[in-house]
Amino acid sequence: MKMEKNGNKFLKVTGILMIIGGSLGIIIGIIAVVGALGLNLLSEGETVLLVWGSVAVLMSAI
Q1: C-alpha 17: how far from chain center
Q2: pLDDT at 1 over 60
Q3: How far is Cα 13 from Cα 6, in angstroms, rounded to an integer?
Q4: What is the mean pLDDT of residues 4-17?
Q5: Is residue 31 part of a domain?
Q6: Domain-located, residue 18
Q7: How many domains is the chain built from?
Q8: Is the separation of the CB atoms in 33 and 58 below 8 Å?
Q9: Rounded to 10 degrees, what is the CA torsion of 45, 53, 35, 17?
Q10: Is residue 50 within 8 Å of 39, Cβ to Cβ?
Q11: Within 13 Å, how many C-alpha atoms sit on residue 51's CB side?
């Protein structure tokens, strides 16, 4: 009985940490895309691969 209660608590904590990690990943991905687009504008289009890489990271987080 007591083991099940500890297991439930562990699963709740793990679920909360996964939600926090996922939301942080999405936010950081958006920041990376915006930063890559800004760098692309400043360098006159020479960093297209960086922009697509940032978009790929954002899509993997979603």
Answers
A1: 13
A2: no
A3: 11
A4: 84
A5: yes
A6: no
A7: 1
A8: yes
A9: 170
A10: yes
A11: 13
The pLDDT of residue 20 is: 95
Residue 35 lies in a domain: yes
Dihedral sign for Cα 41, 47, 51, 54, please: negative
CA 18 → CA 15, 40, 59, 60, 62, distances in Å? 5, 32, 17, 15, 13
What is the per-residue pLDDT for 3?
58
| 12 token code pair | 């709740």
- The DSSP secondary-structure symbol of 44 reads T
Is residue 61 domain-resident?
yes
Tokens of 5: 């209660």
Per the structure, the complete domain to which residue 54 belongs is given by 24-62
Q: Tokens standing for 49?
A: 């691969």
Q: Which of 27, 38, 31, 37 is nearest to 62 (CA)?
A: 27
